[in-house]
Amino acid sequence: MTHVLVSGANGFVGQVLTRALVDAGCSVTGLVRRAASCADGVAEWVHGGKDFAGLADVWPQGLRPDCVVHLAARVHVMHDDALDPDAAFRATNVEGTLRLAAAARQNGARRFVFVSSIKAVAESDGGRPLREDDDVRAEDAYGRSKREAEQALIRYGDETGLDVVIVRPPLVYGPQVRANFLRLMDGIWRGMPLPLGTVRARRSLVYVGNLADALVCCATDPRAAHQCFHVADSDDSTVAELARMLGRHLQKPARLFPVPVGLLQLAGRLTGRLPQIDRLIGSLQVDTTRIRTVLGWQPRYSTDDGLAATARWYRSTH
Known about the structure:
Layout: E1 3-7, H1 12-23, E2 27-32, E3 43-46, E4 67-70, H2 85-106, E5 111-115, H3 141-160, E6 163-168, E7 171-173, H4 179-189, E8 193-194, E9 202-203, E10 205-207, H5 208-220, E11 228-230, E12 237-238, H6 239-250, E13 255-256, H7 261-271, H8 274-281, H9 289-295, H10 303-316
Parallel strand pairs: 1-2, 1-4, 2-3, 4-5, 5-6, 6-11, 7-10, 8-13
Antiparallel strand pairs: 9-12
């Protein structure tokens, strides 16, 4: 039986992933910061040290995972109040990641699956879906920290023999989703007019159930060794299409009206939100050929399936 240690096991992705690992027959330990927060069937290890400080010194006796899936991170935020955002992201996402990798390897782990982000590569696709070997154009502190962590882990793996697997998802959605996706659902639910009618750029997304399924493969399949994978749903929608599908499942038709892209960008400049507008109207598609070819992985759920599940959760809370 494969024993998998999951950091951030009580989070949005972690809850779904740990259940999927248990269903796949794995023994699972969740590394979390607060007690009584893991899914049923998951052993819990609570460690409150900031950025995994002192982790190796308090490693539980007898905990010998075969693999670690590292989800815990300092996440991307729209308005970061850190005096030095790059340093803050680096402390958690680079230095903390390396502490966990080193402690895990010292305690028997042979594979380390690092959940990075497509932001480690770019914020837009430049006219074709992003591949794993594309030139890096990370644009913010979060993306830069994820890229630095990838590079540091690869070096560490080369030096020690730890098998490092990197997974880069785009925006992840599903029940319990937060941030911009939740705000979009809030707007549709309230009947707010949304200026998305002329946005034609396509965006890759990944339903949390699809991401969890891909991560189970990356944790357990020998063919994943030393690979980097992009993971996404099969069908990429425009933001307008996405809003209409969400409206159908929310039973609250999306009220979209056309605004020229140039006016949206002007509004972004005037309000200091141009990066957010650019992400909304720009194309960001990812190429998932590698994981499909190497692992034979296919998304279990369509985007429509994922949106339906997300909308059911949202309706249950309103």
